[in-house]
Each structure stands twice: as structure tokens, then as C-alpha cells.
Amino acid sequence: MDDGLETLEFQAEARQLLRLVIHSIYSNKDIFLRELISNASDALDKLRVESLTAGADLGADTSDLHIALETDRASRTLTVRDNGIGMTRDEVVDLIGTIARSGTADLLQKIKEAGDSAVQGLIGQFGVGFYSAFMVAERVTLHTRRAGTEAGTRWESDGEGTYEIQTVDGLPVGTSVTLHLKPYDGEEAQADYLAEWKIREIVKQYSDFVRWPIRMVNRRPDGADDGPAGTRTLNSMKALWARPRSEVTDAEYAAFYQRISRDPLAPAETIHMRAEGKFEFEALLFVPSQAPLDLFSREGKRGVQLYVKSVFIMDDCAALMPNYLRFVKGVVDAHDLSLTISRESLQHDLQIHSVRRRLVKKVLGSLKGVQESDTERYARLWKQFGPALKEGLLEDPDNAGQLMELLSAESTHDKERTTTLRAYTDRMKEDQNAIYYLTGESRANVENSPHMEAFAARGYEVLILTDPIDEIWVAQVPEFAGHPLRSIAKGQLDLGEAPGGDANATAETAERDREFAALLPWLTAALADHVKQVRLSSRLTSAAACIVGDTSDISAHLEKMYRAMGQPLTSVKRILELNPAHPLITALRAAHEKNPDDTGLKEIAELVHGSAVLAEGGILPDPARFSRLLTDRLPGTL
Ligand code: ADP
User: Fold this and answer.
1) How far is the CA of 554 from the centre of ligand 1 (A)?
2) Which atom of ligand 1 is closest in space to residue 174's alpha carbon?
3) Which of 62, 116, 371, 372 is found 20 to 30 A from 343 (Cα to Cα)?
């Protein structure tokens, strides 16, 4: 028969990744075995799930699902074999020859730019998986046959750009991966992966809890067999989550976490819980130390797997974890669900809803625990996951109170450290009646905003919110601990007198209002294209003017973000506030009083408005005109 032998090229990104793997960015090569066992274990899970649903049609024997490891000193090969789901020829080309995951190019770019120390973390997040075989092998041969199909496939490559693929007959269902190990006298010596003790050590360390038997096949049985003839089972297969907490070591938790997350770092938090009563389940959840690169990509996965009575049911179980906690990894083992439950029915299952509620409480409680016990560690966690947790303020109103407690934000109180809202309210001045914040692009931008002046003068603390999502949650969350949240760039300010202010303030204000009675309506008309009102300000001390919004208006920062995203937006007209004590404003008033028809005055008005827009980091309506008006006038001042 025509076996369709083809030599194909790896996709460009796959080639790049292979090159990185071969030139060994991993310092720890042992993990290749964990990766291959992990793939084999997944393939066994898939076959079990599929045979539960497809049943006899699949024609696969699921009575002895296992992973077999076999070494051969003469040919220097190590083989990892499973009798799982297998792959079709097309699947081999798609899954092994390419990297389908989006963001690959970005990641490879980051890897290139990163220093050596960062590379491991980056590549780990990527899950080199199968390719890790090329760290220790100079050539890899894969034989596979998909359950429910007849033809098998042979694939072989040295990882250098091309691979061979052909159809072969007579293969058993499942996959075997044969590694032709690199010689000892290569550039670097590598461990002896042909030695049974070495294999056993690696399996114990990384794969002990795999739920399928991992058997070492002895070519020359040494009499210590406990499985089918000539084999020995290397792993204990005990589900970690089913064991009492007191009997699981940190190293075991970390190894388990690393298997399910592919994260080379240890988890930041481990949550192991058992629920008894009406609906029994065990959960083993982890908060990573570092956010995955795809935390904010649409395809980013949720990390919780569902098991039923210790049988794997599905990855990425969306019903168990809300979207804003998608960085949490782990396993939930529910006792009273049907093994054939589908994703769709899970979404509507009331018991699952109640499990999810309890898991969320546990995770938030654990984060709160870190916040209370270790500020530094909490700050690091918040930096990684805060932006996702803030989504919870919008997504999960039931837990908004708890999330507000967890919230950390920069503030004018401390340049180095963020603050919680609780700490903010504890520091609030006696006469202060709101939690003040300002949103903007950067800390410097916000700090230098003219809106800040009056607050600085009164010693009121202002939260500095620079994360894009801040714009959205502050608009949804009305208060914290009885104090309203208020943007200092919106609405009329009623701050009272600044310290050291004049006692006759009210009389003075009335006098000032009279003085400006003519100028303000004139300015409002002159700037009608840009603002809806011009009024006097109580928030400015040194700047001449600033732009403020009505309480319901979107902020300048948000408007800019929408525009950057190409969102059509009808321009929102805001309010121009003037500092009546500023020399430019008093001079403008005097000039207007003298000659209200002077055409030059309108240009000054435009300059005042334009400078206020620039000061808050906004976009000028007509930058060229602004620049010309300014430079035309400057010679007169020299
Ligand atoms: P990952 O496991 O992160 O998806 P891999 O490169 O390890 O990446 O594997 C790519 C895909 O190839 C897997 O998702 C799986 O679909 C398939 N695959 C790998 N090994 C096996 C195997 N032993 N049996 C069946 N499919 C496999």
C-alpha cells in the first residue's frame, strides 16, 4: 500500500520553540519525562471520557489503561507508551507540527528579549510539552493510532526543522514515544535516563499522583514484579486531594501544582478543603505566584479540573470558578455527580453553583489571610492578580464587599506602597466626607493634575487609579464602609476653606461672583464648541484653570481609552473651572471689562481652555491652532 511517506516542515513558531528547547533553556532536563507522562495521562483520561459517552462504538479496550516506560541500553532508547486516545495522522500534523496557541509569536519575542533567568518562567507558562523530549533525545519517533480508527501513524524527527510522517498498519490503539537519547559525550553530560533507578526517582518526584499506573517494563525481570509479568508500578496513584492535609508535604503539593499548571514556580497559596454533608467534594486549589501571560487574552483558560469520584471528567471547568478567578488552578472532586455530565448541564446544576460559591469564599478568604498576615507578600500577589480581581467587583456583586476589602490602590499617602480602602478610611480627616480618587494614565500624570491642588492643600488623601479597569469599577461601586467614592475631577467641590483661609470667606466669594458675572457667560459662549459651562473653581491654588466633569460624565482618561480602541463616541462637553486668583484670569477679566469686543480675547480663552486640557493629559481639539495661538503671542512677552 501507499504509506504516504512525507517530509514536512515544522511551522515557523514551532521551529523557533524547538530551537530554544534543543539549546536547552531548561536547567532541569528531568522534566521531559513529567511532560510525556502528563500527555499520556491526559490521553488515558480522554479515552475514558470518550468511551463513557460513545460507548462500544469506539471499539477500544479500557480494561487496563496504563502508561508503560521501557528502556533499551543496546539501542539507547527510552519509550513512553500509553493505550489512550491516540491521534489520527492529521492530528499529529496539527498538534505536534504546529503550535496552535495564540500569542505564540508574542511569547517567543518575550523569550528572546528576556534574560536567561526569566526564560524558564516564560517557557514554563508556554508548556513546551512534547517538545521537551528534544532536550534529551537526538531523535524522537512517535507511533500512534486513534481509538475508533484503523490506520496508524509513524512520525519521526530530529527537531531540526522537518519531520517525517507516514501511515503504518497494525499498531495498537494509543501512542508510544521513543526517545533516541543523546550520547554521553555530547557537549554536556546528561543523566542516565536508561537507568531504572533514575526513571523511578523522576516518576516519584513529579508524577507519583498520576491516577493511572505508570509501569516500568523490565527487559530482564529482577523478580520484584507486582504488575503484569515483567513490570513494576512506579507511582502510588493516590489522589493527593483525597489524602488528609497532614499527610501531604509541601513538596508534593508543589509537584502536583506544577503538573497541572506547567508553572515552574511553586504556588503562592495552597487551599485544600473537604466538604461533607449533602453534597460532598474535595478541592485542592492553588493561587500561582505569577500571573500567566494569557491572563487577559480571550482564549485564556480557567485552571480548575473536575473529577467525579476520582475519575477525571474535564479540564478548564468554567462552572466551578468565576471568570475573575481564572488564575486559580486545581482540582475539584465531586462525589455525587454523574460521570457523563456535560459542560452545558453543569452550568445549570444547582449543586455545582453551591460548590462554586464555597470555592470562591475559600479563595477570597485565603487572599484575605495573606493580606492580614504578610503585607509584602500580599502586595506581590495583588500586583499579579489585582487587575483580574477588580473584574470581580463588576462580575460578582455578592462578593463585592469582600473584594473591596482586598482592593489595593496607589495613593498620595505613600509613594512606595499601595493602600487598602480600610487603611484609607482609618486615615480620613474628621471633616472629610468621601473617599477621593482620580483616574489617569500614570501616577505622574495624576499627581500633577491641577485637580489635586485643593486636596493637597487640605491634606486629604487621594487614591491614584491608573489601571484601565479602575475607570469601570469606580463607576459601579458607590461606597465603602459608609463613605461614598468620589472623583476629584467630577462635580462641584464643597471642600470648605483651606487651612489658614480667610474668615470672611463667604462675603469674599459673593464679591468675586459679582466681579466675574460678566466674564463667565461670555466665556461660556466663546468656548461653546468645547465646554458646556465656565465657572469659578474652589479646587485650584496655582493653576489657572482645569477641566471637570459632571458626576455622571465619563472621565477624560476613559474617553481617551475609548478613542484608542476606535469606539465611536459623541464628544462629551465638560466644564471649565477658573482660578479667580490667578494673574492670567484676573487680567482676562479686566481686559474683558474694558473692551468686551476685543477679538484677541477669544484666542486667550482658547489658550486657557487648551492648557487645562493638556494639564489633565487630554487631547486638544485642534493642536495646530493651539500651537499657533501660543507661539504668535510669545514674542510679545520677551
Ligand atoms: P500540550 O500538552 O501543552 O497541549 P504538547 O506539545 O505536549 O502540548 O502536545 C500537543 C498535543 O498533542 C496535546 O494537546 C495532545 O492533543 C496531543 N498529544 C501529545 N501527546 C499525546 C499522547 N500521548 N496521546 C494523545 N495525544 C497526545
Assistant:
1) 47
2) 24
3) 62
Site to probe by mutation for ligand 1, drawn from 39, 89, 149 as the one with most ligand atoms within 8 Å of Cβ, is 39
| Amino acid code (one letter) for 72 | D
Stretch 282-309: mean pLDDT, rounded?
Answer: 84
Alpha helices (runs of H) in 56-168, residue ranges in sequence order: 89-97, 104-113, 116-126
| Structural domains of the chain ordered from first start | 6-233 (3.30.565.10), 240-379 (3.30.230.80), 407-487 (3.40.50.11260), 505-637 (1.20.120.790)
Does ligand 1 lie within 6 Å of residue 212's CB atom? no
User: Computed over its alpha carbons, how large is the radius of gyration of the chain?
Assistant: 33
Smallest CA separation from ligand 1 atom 4, residue: 129
Q: Is 40 in the pocket of ligand 1 (CB under 6 A)?
A: yes
* CA atoms of 378 and 381, how far apart (whole Å): 5
Q: Whose CA is nearest to atom 1 of ligand 1?
A: 129
104 lines ligand 1 (CB under 6 A): no
Cell of 441: 494614565
DSSP codes of every residue in 421-483: HHHHHHH--TT--SEEEEE-SSHHHHHT-TTHHHHHHHT--EEEE-STTHHHHHHH--EETTE
CA distances from 581 to 398, 559, 565 (A): 48, 30, 39
Q: What is the torsion angle, in degrees rounded to the nearest 10, for the CA atoms of residue 332, residue 334, residue 339 and residue 340?
A: -70
pLDDT in tens, 197-208: 999 999 988 788
- The tens digit of pLDDT for each residue in 539-571 reads 788 889 998 887 767 777 777 767 666 776 666
- Ligand 1 near 165 CB (within 6 A): no
